[in-house]
Design a protein that fits this description.
Number of domains of chain A: 3
Largest sheet of chain A: 5 strands, antiparallel
CATH topology of the largest domain in chain A: Beta-Lactamase
Structural class of chain A: alpha+beta
Order of helices and strands of chain A: HHHEEHHHEEEEHHHEHHHEEEH
Oligomer: homodimer
Radius of gyration of chain A: 26 Å
Number of strands of chain A: 10
CATH class of the largest domain in chain A: Alpha Beta
Number of helices of chain A: 13
CATH architecture of the largest domain in chain A: 2-Layer Sandwich
CATH superfamily of the largest domain in chain A: GAF domain
Strand order of the largest sheet of chain A: 7-3-10-9-8
DNA sequence: GTTAGCACTCTCCATACCCGAGTGCTAATA
DNA sequence: TATTAGCACTCGGGTATGGAGAGTGCTAAC
């Protein structure tokens, strides 16, 4: 990153002007609108250099300059000032969160909605999960002769269900007996511990225990599948989506199936906000989009991911602060609800617990 | 409906030609492409009459004719031949259904996907529900001092959960006691019956019972909220969506929140397929769309709704047959799974149980 | 190193234009 | 009376044309 002071300042101006106006920015738009104390000719020279180095590009001769992915990256990394969200913006968000009910699923949905509205882009929030789920309780409810519904309560009040088929007819009393025995034997266990356990069990009990273990393992492995999406409309109304084929492209990205694949939820830093810009994504389909993503949740415990999706032409500073803030809020809500993270103060009243993650960005 | 034989035939041709080509159809396109044994001049005269009566309309002078909502309605009601789906189409659909697992939710999702693909439009399938849910079992699982997760199992293996707050700290043993008592008192009850019940209960037990009743009532009232949507892409690629504002309109319609409001799931006939065309919808937003909708499920018992959403220019006969067929398949799967409807034969192997609903359409 | 000046390039927009499809009318025909 | 041939008319869509404007790159002067 060998940018002279002046060139850096120009790049910064180009980015913020282009983000605001969505129009390629020309040399004397810069000197006029922003107080650049240089002539347009000088600016042009500098722009030519910036283009040579790959920070900006030309849609065609005689159009202004547009930041390239590299330009945005440099801006995010070094140029922009990573200031905190203004108080009233925070207040607005907090206010919206006060409508939250007690259902965890509702929180996720609400977070996505609030985030999408605040940054005027699309937002995705995955359901929270623990790194390794632990069994709290099993229930078996008979449905038919040879079928029962097994309900698994995991720690943190997560619920799983599946229908189980038995090789022989079985009545509710026996189901209850099995349940009691298994609850006694496995309470607090993880999937692995159930598998390794040496407890004496009948064949039927093993049948159930194996199913439980499978379900818990699946829950540990997957987890990012459930995700709430909001604000696609925001993205579609942006000027870059004037042509219908772009719209189709976005829709493919957004289609539930792909979403969790395209957004790199997995390779997500333990804390801090990560930004991925345009072609930095592995997927071709994401070439025109940027993603601002953060983990939320209690440290090392239950948590999920939260992301903003929009065109590369995005208000990065505001978006990053907003994601950080909303992730902080949701984390506090989770922590105070599950009562394990021991976050001081009331949720949403103090500053979010993000002071230390400030400015951590990826790549 | 005072249409001469000939005029009806012409209208029918106009509709099917326009549905295929998406281009306004002119008088001699009809005589040339379809074996109309009349001169284009005569056809023009007839068209003028049809237009007077409101069955077709003119985008502008010197364009061909386009069916109006009334024209489509007449076509659906009287003109089209409501033939059954060809064997191989059925076979393709059955084949896709064989991938279905045991999860009810999966079925819904799969149905939407299969339906959307088959009719090349968007499809919505709501989760099934019973008319009046009945309690099968309650479980209480302590989470914190004063909080517990109440898990309610309803008949047909439907699960509801909510976090419940108690006015005082309470341990698992007391929770279990409450559970046992309530299960004994209320097993098999509907929400109303719980409310009217005269059983002697402690204050805490009432606390729980009320919560359970509320949840069950909410489940009975709502129910169509959960819906799977698939195939929006199909709709967007249709030529009527060339302009971006149309796309936005569709997206608003499709946004999860609105969907269940805009599609008249509630006023749905007990059986048979219902068609709503364009401005027949109450909502303005739906003015350009048609919906082909059907109930599925066991007669009078558990069931949901299944709908196809597309532009008014839609292949009505095929869509109607397909909806009917897929609804029939899903109904069979539900019936054989819950074993109450006693449908003979294996699911998907016999003809679907739709012979009697043929041709029932609305308005 | 910076700046003024200028020719050049390219997009965007409006105008004009024609072509063809399709209509509606009238008069001739069976 | 119903049908048809003929014809003038209308309108949308595609294609050339021609600035206007914005912005560049280069050169020469400061």
């Amino acid at each position: 990153m060998s940018l002279s002071e002046r060139r850096a300042r120009l790049l910064s101006l180009i980015v913020s002007e282009f983000v605001d106006s969505a129009v390629p920015v020309g040399s004397d738009a810069l000197v006029r609108k922003h107080g650049v104390r240089l002539s347009s000719a000088t600016v042009r020279n500098e722009m030519a250099k910036l283009e040579e180095e790959g920070y900006i590009s030309h849609p065609h001769t005689s159009a202004g300059r547009v930041p390239s992915d590299k330009g945005y990256r440099c801006y995010v990394e070094a140029l922009m000032e990573d200031r905190d969200l203004p108080w009233d913006a925070k207040q607005t968000i907090r206010h919206q969160f006060h409508q939250a009910g007690r259902e965890e699923d509702e929180w996720i949905q609400l977070s996505a909605a609030v985030l999408a509205r605040a940054v005027e882009n699309a937002a995705v929030v995955t359901a929270p999960r623990t790194r390794e789920s632990r069994l709290k309780r099993i229930e078996l409810i008979g449905i038919q002769d040879t079928e029962a519904l097994v309900v698994i309560v995991l720690q943190q009040a997560r619920l799983k269900q599946q229908i189980l088929i038995f090789p022989e007819p079985i009545e509710q009393e026996r189901l209850t007996a099995i349940t009691n025995h298994l609850n006694e034997a496995f309470a607090g266990f993880s999937a692995g511990e159930i598998g390794r356990s040496q407890v004496q069990l009948t064949q039927l009990e093993w049948h159930v225990a194996n199913a439980v273990r499978d379900i818990m393992e699946a829950s540990d492995r997957g987890g990012y599948d459930e995700a709430h999406l909001d604000g696609v409309r925001n993205v579609l109304t942006k000027p870059e989506f004037a042509s219908p084929d772009k719209v189709l492209n976005l829709l493919d990205v957004v289609e539930q199936r792909n979403l969790t694949k395209l957004i790199p939820f997995r390779e997500l830093a333990a804390e801090g906000v990560t930004v991925m810009i345009g072609a930095e994504h592995e997927e071709d389909a994401m070439r025109d989009y940027s993603v601002v993503i953060s983990r939320y949740g209690t440290p090392g415990g239950i948590g999920g991911a939260m992301a903003v999706l929009g065109p590369t032409r995005m208000h990065y500073p505001e978006t990053i602060s907003t994601v950080r803030f909303v992730a902080g809020l949701l984390s506090e809500m989770l922590a105070s609800h599950y009562g394990e993270g021991s976050v001081p103060g009331e949720p949403g009243d103090g500053p979010p617990a993000d002071g230390d993650t400030r400015g951590k960005k990826r790549k």
